[in-house]
Design brief:
about 25% strand, 9 strands, five-stranded mixed sheet, about 20% helix, Nuclear Transport Factor 2, Chain: A, 2 domains, alpha+beta, four-stranded antiparallel sheet, about 230 residues
């Protein structure tokens, strides 16, 4: 396992809700309904059977292969463009094998995918399934669990055996947030999809270490210390 020494930095969240008022007719600017979100998701799954819909109760069993749906929102079209009269949705997925953010533009009238765009280095906020997977990766790492157990015993006098004993916050982690302070594995974060976990006891006492988890490689790469 890579060396896990370093200093802590804040996790980064990318804002993905870009809104420009007045670019579309009022009816087209309505947020997506629950039925539309489901239809957009289904259109993408039919287009790309590898897409995982994050319905598994234990996401780690899926091992993060294929694509996972990250975000579904209404597509914003420029006023006067050919798409401005259409009801469209953007479905963002992440492909862990290619390390690409994939955007599908779905026509909600025809339930068809109109375009697919793939980019690398663009990271959206973590889903609940990804936070769960990152937590499971940490607790399945014997070395990591031993370190966290030491921290937990110092704070509570008890043994840490289960993630339910902790309060956990997680953020998308980018290597650019800590230039010059990361090991080689953590330097891939941003190209790889990574999570930074902030750990607290039940009474909100913070741990002195914060694991960095590479979700693409399914491993802990480093501990960032206070």
């Amino acid at each position: 396992m890579a060396n896990k020494n370093g200093i802590i930095a804040k996790g980064f969240l990318l804002s993905v809700f870009l809104f420009s008022s007045g670019t579309l007719p009022a009816a087209s600017m309505d947020p997506l309904s629950g039925d539309e979100i489901s239809a957009a998701r289904e259109a993408v799954v039919q287009q790309e059977p590898v897409v995982r819909v994050a319905r598994s109760r234990s996401p780690v069993e899926d091992e993060g292969n294929g694509e996972e749906v990250l975000l579904i929102e209404r597509h914003i079209s420029e006023k006067g463009s050919p798409d401005s009269s259409k009801r469209l949705s953007d479905v963002y997925t992440y492909n862990y094998q290619a390390n690409q953010l994939v955007r599908y533009v779905v026509n909600l009238d025809s339930n068809e995918v109109e375009s697919i765009t793939r980019t690398q280095g663009d990271q959206l906020p973590l889903t609940e399934a990804e936070v769960q997977r990152a937590t499971e990766i940490v607790f399945n790492d014997a070395e990591e669990l031993g370190l966290l157990n030491q921290q937990y015993q110092q704070r509570t006098g008890e043994t840490l055996t289960d993630a339910d004993q902790l309060e956990i916050k997680a953020f998308t982690f980018l290597a650019a947030s800590l230039p010059g302070q990361l090991n080689e594995a953590s330097k891939q974060c941003g190209i790889h999809r990574c999570a930074q976990l902030l750990l607290y006891t039940a009474d909100r006492v913070v741990f002195e270490v914060s694991p960095i988890v590479d979700l693409s490689e399914k491993r802990v790469t480093q501990n960032i210390g206070f």
